[in-house]
Design brief:
The chain has 95 residues and is of the alpha+beta class. It has one domain. Helices cover 28% and strands 18% of the residues. It has 4 helices and 5 strands, in the order βααααββββ. The strands form 2 sheets. A 3-stranded mixed sheet has the order 1-2-3, covered by helices on one side. It has a two-stranded antiparallel sheet with strand order 4-5. A hairpin with a 7-residue loop joins strand 2 and strand 3. The protein starts with a strand and ends with a strand.
Length: 95
C-alpha cells in the first residue's frame, strides 16, 4: 500500500490536532453517551479523501504496537496487503 496515513508519530498527531490520549481513548463510552469519538471523525475524514488506503494508528492495548486500519475498497490496483505471521499459521493477502 502506498497511501497509508501514519498517525503514530507525535508530529503527525500534532498536524492533525490530536494526541495519543485521544487516539487511544474509550470510544465505546463516548458512543454510549451519544457522542461521536474523535477517532471516528478522523477515520471518516481520511476515508472521504478517497486517496488514503489505510491508517497506521497507535494501539490502545499495547503502547509498543500499532494497528493498521485498511479501507479495502480504497486499495489501488497496484496495492496489496499481506499478513506476516512468523508462526506460519496465517497465510492471507488482499486482494
Amino acid at each position: 500500500m502506498s497511501a497509508v496515513l501514519d498517525i503514530t508519530a507525535f508530529d503527525s498527531q500534532n498536524t492533525l490536532s490530536t494526541n495519543l490520549q485521544e487516539l487511544t481513548g474509550n470510544w465505546r463510552l463516548m458512543n454510549a453517551l451519544g457522542q461521536i469519538a474523535p477517532t471516528q471523525t478522523l477515520g471518516e475524514a481520511a476515508y472521504n479523501l478517497q486517496t488514503i488506503e489505510a491508517l497506521k494508528v497507535p494501539s490502545a492495548r499495547d503502547p509498543n504496537s500499532y494497528n493498521l486500519v485498511v479501507f479495502t475498497d480504497r486499495l489501488s490496483a497496484n496495492s496489496f496487503l499481506r499478513v506476516y505471521d512468523d508462526s506460519g499459521t496465517i497465510n492471507a493477502q488482499l486482494p
